[in-house]
C-alpha cells in the first residue's frame, strides 16, 4: 500500500489486501485474484474534484474547408497531477494532449517536432528521446508520411505527416500516441496521448451535449512519472492516480432527464476500466470503428488499453450525485484486479429536460458473414522469461517470435495479406494475463471470444461493431473477421499493453 499512500486519494480497504500481489519480475502476472479471490475490494473514492472539462481542442491552422493543419510538439512540461506538479512528456504542453477535431473525409496535416530532452537509454536499450506518431484507429495508408510507424525521429527532428481520411469511417473516436518500438510504453505512460474525434454528422446524435473522456493513470516519483522496472514490463504498468482528462474525480453536471453523449478512450498503458455509472445504464452507440445500428443498454462496459466506447447516458430524474466507477476486473496482473475506483461524479441538478434515446443510430451497421474462401490464420501470444536464474529479462512473442528492430532490420512474425480479401484470424493467448490485441489500418468484427468477461464477449460477438482493439482473455482466444482493404504497405499488429509491445509482442502485417 506504500505507493498508494503518496497520493491524496481517500483509500478505504475492505477486508484483507492479500490480493494486491507484490510485483516482481518472476510473477509473470500470477497476481490479482487468479487463484480465487478471498480478500476484499480496495475502494478508492477520492473527494469530488473540480468541474469536468473536456481536453483542450487543438488549434486548426488551416482556413481551407476539408483540411485540418496542426502543430504537434513532443516536449516536457510541468503538469499539475492532483495537486503535485510533475514534468511530464506532453504534446504541446497539455495533459492529456489537445483533441484533434476532424470531419469525415478531411485531410489532416501534422507538423511534428520532437523536442524531447536527451535522457539516455531506457531498459529496452532505446534512446529515450526517439519517438514518432501513430494515429490509432485511422483507416489510412500505413506508408510514406501517413500512419507509418516504421519512421522514427531523434530529438530536434521535425516531420510533416499527412493523413488522407477519404476512406475512413466517420463517427468514431481515435487517438494519437508514440509508436517507436522499445519506447512506446514509457512515452505514453509519461503523458504522450491525445484524442482524435472524427465527427459523424449523424443528425440523430448531434443534438446531445457531447463530451470526450481520456482515461489515464500515472504514478509520480521525484517530480516526474515513476520509472519503469523489469516487472512493470512483464505486468504492464498501472498508476496510483486514476484520472479523466487529467483530473481526479471531476464533477460533470447533468440536468434531470438529459441525455449526454460520452466518447471515452482508454489511453492507459495497462489498466483496464470496467465502467459503471451508479443508477444508470451506459447505452452504447459506437465502438472503435464507428457507430452501431442502435443504442444497446449495458450495466457495465469493459475498456482495455486502446479501446474506445461511445455511450449515451440518460440522467435520472432524481437529483443526486452518481459515481462513475471502474469496478474490479482481474486481467491477470496489477492492483486493479481488486480496486473499485471513482473516476468521475455526475451531478444531476438544475431544471429538467426530457430527452430520449434515439431508436436508430446507424442503420448501415451490420454484422458481416464470413465470405467463402476467407484466409484462415492463427496467432499465439506468449509471455516468458530469458535467463530465469540470473534475474532475467521478460520476453513477449507472437507465434514464438519477439519483434525486434536492429539498424532498421526487422525480425518479426509476418502476415502476408492480399489487398481486397477477407481473413479470419484466430488469436490464442497462451499466458496468464489478458492481452488487448490491436491491428492497424483495418477494423475487424469479432466472431468469437473464449474466456474473460462474459458481458464483453457477448456484446462484441453479437453487435455490428467494428474493432481495432479486442481483449484476448488469459488462456483464452478470439476470432476476428479482418477485411484487407484500400491500402497496401507494411504495418503492425500487437498487444496494446505497451510494455508487452516493447518486449516483442508485435508482428508485421505486410499487405500487398
Ligand atoms: Cu499484452
UniProtKB/TrEMBL annotation:
Top-level taxon in the UniProt lineage: Bacteria
InterPro entries: Cu-oxidase-like_N, Cu-oxidase_2nd, Cu-oxidase_C, Cu-oxidase_fam, Cu_oxidase_Cu_BS, Cupredoxin
Transmembrane segments: none
Domain named Plastocyanin-like: residues: 78-201, 208-338, 411-510
Signal peptide boundaries: 1-27
Alphabetized UniProt keyword annotations: Metal-binding, Oxidoreductase, Signal
Protein name as it appears in the record: Multicopper oxidase family protein
Biological source species: Methylomonas aurea
Higher taxonomy: Bacteria, Pseudomonadati, Pseudomonadota, Gammaproteobacteria, Methylococcales
Amino acid at each position: 500500500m506504500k505507493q498508494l499512500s503518496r497520493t491524496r486519494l481517500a483509500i478505504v480497504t475492505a477486508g484483507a489486501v492479500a490480493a494486491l500481489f507484490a510485483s516482481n519480475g518472476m510473477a509473470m502476472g500470477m497476481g490479482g485474484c487468479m487463484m480465487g479471490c478471498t480478500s476484499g475490494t480496495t475502494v478508492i473514492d477520492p473527494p469530488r474534484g473540480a468541474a469536468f472539462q473536456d481536453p483542450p481542442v487543438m488549434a486548426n491552422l488551416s482556413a481551407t474547408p476539408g483540411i485540418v493543419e496542426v502543430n504537434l510538439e513532443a516536449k516536457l512540461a510541468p503538469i499539475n497531477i492532483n495537486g503535485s506538479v510533475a514534468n511530464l512528456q506532453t504534446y504541446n504542453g497539455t495533459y492529456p494532449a489537445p483533441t484533434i477535431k476532424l470531419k469525415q473525409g478531411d485531410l489532416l496535416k501534422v507538423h511534428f517536432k520532437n523536442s524531447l530532452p536527451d535522457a539516455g537509454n531506457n531498459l529496452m536499450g532505446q534512446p529515450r528521446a526517439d519517438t514518432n506518431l501513430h494515429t490509432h484507429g485511422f483507416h489510412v495508408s500505413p506508408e510514406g508520411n501517413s500512419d507509418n510507424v516504421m519512421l522514427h525521429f531523434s530529438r530536434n527532428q521535425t516531420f510533416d505527416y499527412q493523413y488522407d481520411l477519404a476512406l475512413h469511417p466517420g463517427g468514431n473516436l481515435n487517438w494519437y500516441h508514440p509508436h517507436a518500438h522499445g519506447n512506446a510504453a514509457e512515452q505514453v505512460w509519461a503523458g504522450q496521448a491525445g484524442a482524435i474525434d472524427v465527427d459523424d454528422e449523424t443528425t440523430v446524435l448531434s443534438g446531445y451535449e457531447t463530451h470526450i473522456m481520456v482515461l489515464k493513470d500515472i504514478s509520480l516519483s521525484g517530480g516526474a512519472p515513476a520509472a519503469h522496472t523489469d516487472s512493470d514490463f512483464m505486468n504492464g504498468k498501472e498508476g496510483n492516480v486514476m484520472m479523466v482528462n487529467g483530473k481526479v474525480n471531476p464533477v460533470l453536471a447533468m440536468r434531470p432527464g438529459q441525455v449526454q453523449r460520452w466518447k471515452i478512450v482508454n489511453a492507459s498503458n495497462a489498466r483496464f476500466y470496467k465502467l459503471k455509472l451508479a443508477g444508470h445504464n451506459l447505452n452504447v452507440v459506437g465502438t472503435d470503428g464507428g457507430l452501431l445500428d442502435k443504442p444497446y443498454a449495458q450495466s457495465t462496459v469493459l475498456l482495455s488499453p486502446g479501446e474506445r466506447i461511445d455511450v449515451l447516458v440518460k440522467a435520472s430524474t432524481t437529483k443526486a450525485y452518481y459515481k462513475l466507477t471502474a469496478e474490479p476486473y482481474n486481467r491477470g496482473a496489477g492492483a486493479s484486479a481488486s480496486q473499485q475506483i471513482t473516476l468521475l461524479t455526475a451531478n444531476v441538478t438544475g431544471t429538467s429536460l426530457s430527452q430520449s434515446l434515439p431508436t436508430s443510430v446507424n442503420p448501415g451497421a451490420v454484422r458481416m458473414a464470413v465470405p467463402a474462401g476467407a484466409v484462415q490464420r492463427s496467432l499465439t501470444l506468449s509471455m516468458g522469461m530469458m535467463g530465469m536464474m540470473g534475474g532475467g529479462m521478460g520476453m513477449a512473442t507472437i507465434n514464438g517470435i519477439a519483434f525486434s528492430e536492429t539498424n532498421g532490420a526487422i525480425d518479426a512474425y509476418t502476415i502476408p495479406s492480399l489487398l481486397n480479401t477477407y481473413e479470419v484470424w484466430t488469436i490464442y493467448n497462451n499466458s496468464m494475463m489478458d492481452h488487448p490485441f490491436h491491428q492497424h489500418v483495418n477494423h475487424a468484427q469479432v466472431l468469437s471470444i473464449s474466456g474473460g468477461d462474459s458481458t464483453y464477449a457477448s456484446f462484441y460477438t453479437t453487435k455490428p461493431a467494428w474493432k481495432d482493439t479486442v481483449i484476448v482473455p488469459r488462456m483464452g482466444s478470439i476470432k476476428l473477421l479482418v477485411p484487407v482493404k484500400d491500402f497496401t504497405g507494411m504495418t503492425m499488429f500487437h498487444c496494446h499493453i505497451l510494455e508487452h509491445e516493447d518486449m516483442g509482442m508485435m508482428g508485421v502485417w505486410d499487405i500487398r
